[in-house]
């Protein structure tokens, strides 16, 4: 996501960002126009801009340095985070750092939905009401029309010689189904 995208979503001009961040207008304008990129800015400049926008510098640096990993890799990263932190700490971390909103700002809608479904599942499983404090209703507009199945379903269907999608639906986890994402083995998810 570019600075231009962020500013347009917030109906903010480069001039206004320059004033509230104390970053020279020429720098902000070059970033806005794509003449320069955040990767070429000093850490201080990035910090000032992100602080003025209310965004985490860490998250922005990650988005600059990482390419979109693909959904299956994203799922593995989520599972790894849960395994390292534990379910409850993971929920607190994701919600506390507004990670779902961060993915929405990157336009990574499927990843945001997957993470939201995971958080809802973990909250339900652990009898936590943290998720009730957040309003993610805007995400519902990004629910894909076609269901997203785990990558292995196609391979499993070929091996079994039959379409496994309907069979998998019988065991699908409701928190994911709500967002048209099919997860059926919780051991794969957490």
Automatic annotation (TrEMBL):
The organism's place on the tree of life at top rank: Bacteria
Any GO MF annotation of the entry: DNA binding
Coiled coil: none
Sequence ranges assigned to domain HTH cro/C1-type in this UniProt record: 3-60
PROSITE patterns registered for this protein in UniProt: HTH_CROC1
Record protein name field: HTH cro/C1-type domain-containing protein
Organism of this sequence: Kandleria vitulina DSM 20405
High-level lineage: Bacteria, Bacillati, Bacillota, Erysipelotrichia, Erysipelotrichales
């Amino acid at each position: 996501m570019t600075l231009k995208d962020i500013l347009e979503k917030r109906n903010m001009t480069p001039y206004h960002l320059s004033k509230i961040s104390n970053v020279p207008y020429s720098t902000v304008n070059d970033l806005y126009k794509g003449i320069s990129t955040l990767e070429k800015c000093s850490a201080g400049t990035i910090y000032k801009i992100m602080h003025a926008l209310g965004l985490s510098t860490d998250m922005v640096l990650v988005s600059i340095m990482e390419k979109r990993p693909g959904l299956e890799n994203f799922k593995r990263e989520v599972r790894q985070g849960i395994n390292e932190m534990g379910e409850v700490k993971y929920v607190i971390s994701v919600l506390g750092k507004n990670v779902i909103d961060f993915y929405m700002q990157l336009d990574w809608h499927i990843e945001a939905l997957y993470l939201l479904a995971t958080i809802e599942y973990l909250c339900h499983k652990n009898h936590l009401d943290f998720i009730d404090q957040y309003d993610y209703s805007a995400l519902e507009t990004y629910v894909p029309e076609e269901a997203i199945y785990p990558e292995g379903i196609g391979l499993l269907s070929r091996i079994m010689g039959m379409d496994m999608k309907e069979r998998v639906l019988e065991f699908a986890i409701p928190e994911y189904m709500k967002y048209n994402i099919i997860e059926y083995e919780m051991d794969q998810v957490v």
